[in-house]
Give the backbone structure.
Amino acid sequence: MARKRATNGSGTIRQRNDGRWEAIYTVGRDNGSGKLIRKSVYGATSEEAAKKLRAATAAIDNGTYVEPEKMQLKQWLSIWLTEYTGSIKPGTLITYESNVRLHINPALGAVKLSDLKPHNLQTFVNRLYRGVPGSHALSAKMVKNIHGTLHNALETAVKIGYLRLNPSSNIELPRVERKEIRPLGGQQIDSFLKAINGNPFEPLFFTALYTGMRLSELLGLQWACVDFNNETIKIDKQLLVKRGAETQRTFGAPKNDKVRVIKVASSVMTVLKRVKVQQTENRLKVGEIWVNELGLVFTNEIGVNLPHATVEHRFKRIVTSIGLSECRFHDLRHTYATEGIRLGIPVKTISEALGHYSTAFTMDVYGHTTEQMQIDAAAIFEQTILERKRYG
C-alpha cells in the first residue's frame, strides 16, 4: 500500500486496498481526551486526493473549516462559490450568486448538507414554480436555472466526498416551453435588407443574417479572426454583457465552448472590407481619441465597442418599421439556419456553422423546416407521377 506525505499542506496520503487514494488530516484535539481528531477525504488519484487535502487544510488555517457532517448548506455554498467556480464565465458566476442569495439560502440554507433529501428539494422546486404567500411564482426557465445552480454545487460536494449521492439528481422540473422562432421569409428578407440600406448598423445586421453568428460573437469579433484570403471567420470568443456600472467589458468563451471556423459568402467579406476601410478613416479623423485596442470589427466612430442593448434597440426600430415588431435580433440567426436548410445545405454543415453541440439539436430546433421541405418534395414527385401517367 503506497503512502506519501502531501506536497502541500499537512497530512498524509495513502492508497487504500480498494484502489482509492485517502488523504488524512488533523482538525484539532478532542476537548475531553486531548486526542487528535483526524478526518479523511478521498480521490481516484493521488493528485485528486492532494487537491482535496489542500482545500481542507487551507480552510482549517483560515478558520473557515466545518466538519462535513455538521456543515449547513449555506456554508457549503459559500465555499463552493469561492473555491470551486474559478473556471466558469463571470456572468454565470453572478447568476449563481444571485440564485444562492435570493432563493436557495432563504429556503434551505440552514439545513445540514447531510440532511438534504430529494423530497425536500422537490418541495423547494414546487414552491418556486407555484409561488408561496409573500413571493410570486417564478417561470419554468428560472426554476430550472435555480435548480441547476444547486445541482452543480451538490455535485461538487459528491466529488470531494462530502456527500455520497446528489439529492437533486432526480427532481421533477417544470417544463420549459421553447420560444417560438420567427425566421424571416423570402419577402421579409428583401424588406429587411431594403430597410437597413445605408443604416450605420447595416454591416453588422448583414453579417448576422448571412453567418448565423450570435450577437455576443459579432460584438466580440476581432480583425485577427477575419481571414480575407480564405474568406473565413474564426469564432473563438464572445463579448460578455456588461453587468454593473463599474464592471469592464470582457471576453468569454463561445457558447458550448465550441471554437469554430466558418466559410462565409464573398459578399460578407466585401462588407467587412468596407468596415475596415471606414474604421481606418475614422481613426485618422479622430486621432488620439481612437480607442479600439482590442481590434474589434464592430465599433462606434471612435472605436468603442457596441453595447448589446444599443444594437438590439436599433434592430427593433428597423423591424418595427416594416411590420415585424415581434422579430428579435436572434431571429436573424434562425433565418440563416432555415434559409440554409431550404436551399439544400446539409444540416450538419449548418449545425457546425451555428456552433450547436450536436446535429440532433439543430434538427430539433429547425425540424419544422425539413417537414415543409418533405411536403414540397412530395408535391413535386406527385406532379412528376401525374405527368408520366399523362404521357405514358
Summary: Residues 3-9 have pLDDT under 50 and may be disordered. The chain has three domains: 1-65, 69-177, 186-366.
